[in-house]
UniProtKB/TrEMBL annotation:
Domain of life, source organism: Bacteria
Pfam families: Bmp
Subcellular location: Cell membrane
Protein name (Swiss-Prot/TrEMBL): BMP family ABC transporter substrate-binding protein
Signal peptide: 1-24
Gene3D superfamilies given in the database record: 3.40.50.2300
GO cellular component, as recorded: plasma membrane
Keyword match Repressor: no
UniProt topology in membrane: Lipid-anchor
Membership in a protein family: Belongs to the BMP lipoprotein family.
Coiled coil regions, renumbered to chain: none
Entry keyword Protein biosynthesis: no
Amino acid sequence: MKHFVGIALVFALALMALPFGAEAPAVRAAGPKLCLVTDVGEIDDRSFNQSAYEGLLAAAEELDGETEYIETQNATDYANNIQTLAEAGCQVIITVGFALGDATIKAAEQYPEIYFIGVDQFQPTEVKNVVGLIFPEAKAGFLAGVLAARMSKSGVVAAVLGTDQVPPVVAFKEGYEAGARYANPDIRLISTYHPGGLDKAFTDPEWGAQTAKQAFDQGADVIFGAGGKTGNGALEEVAKLTTPEKPVYCIGVDTDQWETVEAARPCLISSAMKLITKGVRDLIVAWSKGEPSSGNFVGDVGLAPFHDFEDVVPDEVKKELEEIAEMLLSGKLDPLTGQKVE
């Protein structure tokens, strides 16, 4: 377990201000104490955990709050890590990831005075002091799939994924494949889940890189990386493979990875985003106003900007993506089947 305490100062500098790998001094702020437990992995994973943490920091800055977090080292530590923060006086605890769902509910029952935000944790039964921040990942995946199929010259696209034990990962994959088929019914798909469990599937960039290279060797020229550091490994491998003469594209996940995985920029055409940072921030601020959500709160999704590839993506593809996004938002297009809904 890695345990950190800090004060929110300037949000834009917050990640640099907190020294990873060392404990920051505990200083009591005027506002609330806002806390977070990561899934297995690090707070600066440039993906899922980091996006949630940045939402925590944004809220802490706005509310003049104190922050504290624990980096989970092993899946067996979920409950203990949550309890440690609960006993430390945290008023809000964000638990990041589907795998922390059971531990979060049990902690909420034990600590009814604490407000819990479970990122990617669907709540089948409403509990007053718990909200599940969930996302329609299939919609973001569908847009990424359309983009991949439209940009592919080989007619082969791939996805390098975390474990299929996590429903949001499955939703990304199913949406991606449906979107690719929507754009090109003859597209060939190579989708590969990590074979390991929750303790390894999102922290294995070497496997991600190897799997991306295998897909490339099988003809894939657009590769979607969706699996924390494992997916990042795939993106960075594709960046090494692309050339001006034979471009290969990659698509990131969860956040705009142009901003977080600089090594992937040579291939990173976009990212299938879940606006986790905004969702976490909005839920904390609503709680601070005495308007806490419970049950499930559905966050926003979308494609990240094309950045250096703005002129590479044809205007007709951009227009098509905008039209599809509107259909997905309005419920007129099923992201799992690609069928229009009347």
